[in-house]
Amino acid sequence: MNDEAAGSAGPPDPDHGLDVDAAWADIVARWGPTPEVSTEKPAPPEDEPDDRRTDEEAEEHFVPPPPPPLPVVDPRRRLAWIGLFGTPVLALLMVAFGVEVSGWIGFLMAVAFVGGFSYLVATMGSAPPDDWPGDDGAVL
Questions:
Q1: Residue 16 — left, alpha, or beta (φ > 0 → left; ψ -120 to 50 → alpha)?
Q2: Which of 5, 102, 112, 121 is an S-S bond match for 83, by CB 3.0 to 4.6 Å?
Q3: Cβ neighbours, 10 Å, residue 3
Q4: How far apart are CA 130 and CA 7, in angstroms?
Q5: On the CB side of 19, how many CA atoms lie within 13 Å of its CA?
Q6: Euclidean distance between CA atoms 117 and 123, whole angstroms
Q7: What Rg, from alpha-carbon coordinates, does the chain have?
Q8: pTM over 0.85
């Protein structure tokens, strides 16, 4: 057995003698110069106003149709949503600001929360809306 091979019990060199720093410096040196970007806006043509578009640009520009009006919510349903979400928010604010809640106010807040939830569940429709096409998408 060779003494030199037996004496070198160090970890194997993963780079196989390659100078990593020199290779990195070479990559950075060969990297191309970055182009200078001008911050000045080009002057518009004198024969065409700035706010006008050419016919080609006007055809490519998409203008979405106006959105449909928001649905009208029944006042009882709106009150139920306020009871469902407003009561916990009010309770959190009262706890955060250290407001003492008497028995009647706490009872009314609980009734508003449970009542709002109950009304929304009771009036929830069991069938899909009439304009539903009946297609869930994928067909197997």
A1: left
A2: 112
A3: 7
A4: 85
A5: 6
A6: 10
A7: 36
A8: no
- 17-75 residue pLDDT tens: 778 888 888 888 888 776 676 667 666 656 556 455 566 665 677 888 999 999 899 99
Q: How many helices (H) and strands (E) does the chain have?
A: 6, 0
Nearest 5°: phi and psi at 54? -75, 170
Q: What are phi and psi of 105, to 5 degrees?
A: -70, -40
CA distance 42 to 23: 42
How do residues 67-120 score in pLDDT, each as one tens digit?
999 989 999 999 999 999 999 999 999 999 999 988 999 999 999 999 999 999
3-class SS of residue 131: coil
